Structures are given as structure tokens and as C-alpha cells.
Amino acid sequence: MKKHPEYAYLDLMKHLLDHGIQKGDRTGTGTLSTFGYQMRFNLQEGFPLLTTKRVPMKLIASELLWFLKGDTKLRYLLENNNHIWDEWGFKKWVESPDYDGVDMTDFGRRSLVDEAFNEEYQLELKHYQELVLTDDAFSDTYGDLGNVYGKQWRFWEGADGEVYDQIQYIIDEIKRNPDSRRLLCNAWNISELHTQALPPCHYSFQFYVVDGKLSCLFNMRSNDVFLGLPFNIASYALLTHLIAHECGLEVGELVYSGADVHLYSNHVEQARKQLTREPRAFPTIRLNQEKTSIFDFELDDIELIGYDPHPGIKAPVAV
Question: Is residue 228 part of a domain?
Fold first, then answer.
């Protein structure tokens, strides 16, 4: 019997538990890490949204649409009830001279171990979210994450002073010359890293066309396997579907290439729990065929069909 495609991911998690090297990290949490790992998913076999725990597709889709808009401000995400970037914007605010509330030093870790502090943190975070949504000046200052993915994908500023739309270039080039080996987008703009709330983890991706099918390889310098990687896999699968749709192609393979691939030490028990579960059939994705440009897509134009996962497993985010 053919092995379920989700085992590509589950086998990586097991590898980290069995063979990962204990390593320190920027957040002070500690990880089990390996260097250099690749996975492949045949997108003809279903949409690779994990089934051994529920993964919120609407968050993945709204984040990708945010990237494709070239947006870098949290307001669009908050309007779509997407909070996956909140902590990085919140950190920018509470570490600024303009913040005069309760001390939020190391709020990610402290909120997990101190119930009284967590109540204060949640109140401050809610206040921050409300300010981003309602106060334009505050949103421009503390709701902007800097020149993150959307800026680099759609508005890369070259040394020549020109602004380049890397996504539009890829689409145009696929239509013009599908055999091109230059169907590549790079988010790692070293001159702008200092402006970013979080430097790109998935820093580049490349497309490949053969037999009328579009495949994608994406590269990650650093990868939180339990929380982040399920989002990354589904996001690049969706991006491949969207670009294939605009270019009149079928989907092919999704290839993941990770450098520092790690499991945070406070995700170990959650990972063990997930590994006890049997994968279920992958869902499929349906796109609004009336939309011809990926830049016109909204959440309602993307439909997930047949998703029947195991329950979600909560784990803390390392900020």
C-alpha cells in the first residue's frame, strides 16, 4: 500500500525527535535541530493541508493574499480575523518609547507560566489590535511590520532606483517562456533586513513547468516545524494553484528545502501526540474560475473541499 503523503511531514518530525541536535536560538527557547532537509508533495494527490491536526486554512489563505497585495500592515490581517503576525507588531510597540503600560518584557514566555501576567498581556494585546484597526497614525507606525514579504514580492527596490514586481514577472515569464530557469522570487533583501519585524524565513521560491504542469520549490533558512511548517506547505501549495490557474496550467509538485529545520523544546510533547494519529485523506481546493488574475482573488474565491482533520493541538509561539 502506498504511504500517505502526509508522512513526508510526520517523518521529518520523528527524525527531529529521534536525531535532532539540541541547539540554542534567538528566542532563548531551545530547539532540536537538523541542517538540510527536503520534502516533496504531488499536488495532483490532493491539497497538502495536514490532517493529523487541524490547520486553519483561512489564516493561510488570508496571509498569502496579504503577501500578494504587497501589503505589510497588520490591519488587513486583523480585518480578516488573522492574528498570526500580531506578536511581532505588538513587540515593536511595547519596546518603543511610546508604550507606557505594564512591563511586557519576554511576554511570549511569561504569558505561558504566569496566569496573572497573561491576563494583563491579553488586555494589552487587545488594546494594541484595536489601535491598529482604528487609529491610522498608530497603524502606520506600530501596525507596519517593515519591508516584509509583500514588499519584497511586489515592490522590490533595486540599486538602480527602479521598483520590481517579482510575482508579475514570474507570471509573464511563464506565459512567454515556460522553459525558463529564471522563474524565481527572492525575499531576502539584505539591505532592508533591519527594517523588518522578522527577516524572511521562507526566503525564495522557484517555479518549473513541464507537461503542462506547474511545480514549485521553496527554500527556508529557518523553520519551526510544529507551528510554522504546516502553514508554509499549504501556503506555497495555494500559491502554486493560483499561478497555475492564471497561466492555464495544471499543478505538479511542491518541493520544500529547509536549512535550519527545528522543533522547539516546548513543542516536543505536542509533536509526540500528533505522531500517534493516523493521517486522513487530503482535501482538494477549488478556485473561482471567473477570476483571471491572482491579484483579484479574495478569501471567498478559494474553497477547501473535503477537509476532515483530527482536532488542533495548541503550542506557544516563540517570538
Answer: yes
Task: Identify the CATH number of the domain in which residue 29 sits.
Answer: 3.30.572.10
**Residue 216 known to be catalytic:** no
- CA 188 to CA 152: how far, in whole Å? 8
| Residues shown for the chain | 319
User: pLDDT, tens digit, for every residue of 59-94?
Assistant: 999 999 999 999 999 999 999 999 999 999 999 999
Q: Is residue 116 assigned to a domain?
A: no
Q: Show Cβ contacts of residue 119 under 8 Å, excluding neighbours closer than 6 positions.
A: none
Largest CA-CA distance found in the chain, in angstroms, rounded: 61
277 is in an annotated binding site: no
Whether 76 contacts 90, CB under 8 Å: no
Which pTM value belongs to this model? 0.94
| 107 inside domain | no
Question: Which residue among 185, 201, 216, 247 is the active-site one?
Answer: 201
